[in-house]
Amino acid sequence: AQSVTQLGSHVSVSEGALVLLRCNYSSSVPPYLFWYVQYPNQGLQLLLKYTSAATLVKGINGFEAEFKKSETSFHLTKPSAHMSDAAEYFCAVSSWGSSYKLIFGSGTRLLVRP
Amino acid sequence: DAMVIQNPRYQVTQFGKPVTLSCSQTLNHNVMYWYQQKSSQAPKLLFHYYDKDFNNEADTPDNFQSRRPNTSFCFLDIRSPGLGDAAMYLCATSRATSANNEQFFGPGTRLTVL
After folding, report:
1. Share of chain A above pLDDT 70, in %
2. Which terminal Cβ of chain B has fewer Cβ within 10 Å, N or C?
3. CB of B86 less than 8 A from some CB of A
4. To the nearest whole number, what is the mean pLDDT of chain A?
5. For A32-83, how does the pLDDT look when each residue is reduced to its tens digit (9 = 90+)?
6. Dihedral sign of CA atoms A50, A52, A58, A63 in order
7. CA dihedral sign of residues B99, A105, A75, A13
C-alpha cells in the first residue's frame, strides 16, 4: 500500500526566508509524486510533479522539489518566501491500478510573516 | 482555456433537503472524481467515473450518489444532507492513461447545511 506523510501541519516563515515543506512517501513500486497548493476557498492547483525523468523538479511560482529515493522523501522548497505563498500545501502519491487515484498527505499550512 | 467548472460555488441547503452539485470539464478527460474536503483536512475521495464505469469508495455513505450523463458533465447528489455533510466538494478530472497524469481540480462548491 502507498502512503504519504507530511511533517508539520503548520510552518511559519518570514517573508524572504527559505520555505521547506516536508513529504515522505511509502511505496512498493516506483512512485509518481505531486505537490498541490490550495488557496482559501479554492480548488487544488498543481505545483509540480515527479515522474522519474529528473530527481530535481522545478514547478510554478519558484518552487522546486527533490526526489530522494534513499530517504523516501520529496520535500518542497522555495528560496525566498513571498506573502502570496501563504496557503495549504498537499503532497500526494499516485496509486497504481485503474484510474490512478491520488493518495494525499494531511497537508501543511504555510504562514508567511511580514 | 480548458478547465474544470463547478456550479454553484456556494450552496446552502436545509437538513434533509436533497441537493445536487454540478461539475463540467472542457479537457475531454475520461476520468472524473468527486472529493469531500472538511476544514483543515485533505480531500477525501468519494467516488470516481472511469469513462462510464462508476467506482465507489468503500467508506462513502449511501447518502451520496453520482451521475455522469456524458464525458463533460458529472453530478454529485446528496439525498438527505446532514449537518456533518457541510464541507467543500471538489471535482477533479484526469486523463488517467498513466500514473503520472495529474488531476485537474475545479474551484469547489462550499456546501452549508442549516
Report:
1. 96
2. N
3. no
4. 92
5. 899 999 999 899 999 999 987 788 999 999 999 999 999 999 999 999 999 9
6. positive
7. positive
Place of cell 450552496: B11
Task: Please indicate if any CB of chain A lies within 8 Å of the CB of B39.
Answer: no
Q: Write out the three cell numbers for B77.
A: 447528489
Q: Is A101's Cβ below 8 Å from some Cβ in B?
A: yes
Residue B2 has a pLDDT of 66
Structure-block grid coordinates of residue A27: 511505496
Instruction: Check if the beta carbon of residue A48 is closer than 8 Å to that of residue A59.
Output: yes
Nearest to B2, CA basis, from B23, B22, B25, B34 = B25
* Arithmetic mean of pLDDT, B66-78: 97
Distance from the B42 Cα atom to the nearest Cα atom in chain A, whole angstroms = 5
Judge residue B106's burial from the number of C-beta atoms within 10 Å of its C-beta, 0-12 exposed, 13-18 middle, 19 or more buried.
buried
Q: What is the pLDDT of residue A97?
A: 63
Do strands A10-14 and A108-113 pair parallel, antiparallel, or not at all (unpaired)?
parallel
- Which residues are CB-neighbours of A60 under 8 A, at least 6 positions away? A46, A47, A48
Amino acid at A94: S
pLDDT value of residue A98: 54
Residue A90 C-alpha cell reads as: 498537499
Euclidean distance between CA atoms A72 and B31, whole angstroms: 29
Task: Kindly tell me if the per-residue pLDDT of B97 is higher than 80.
Answer: no
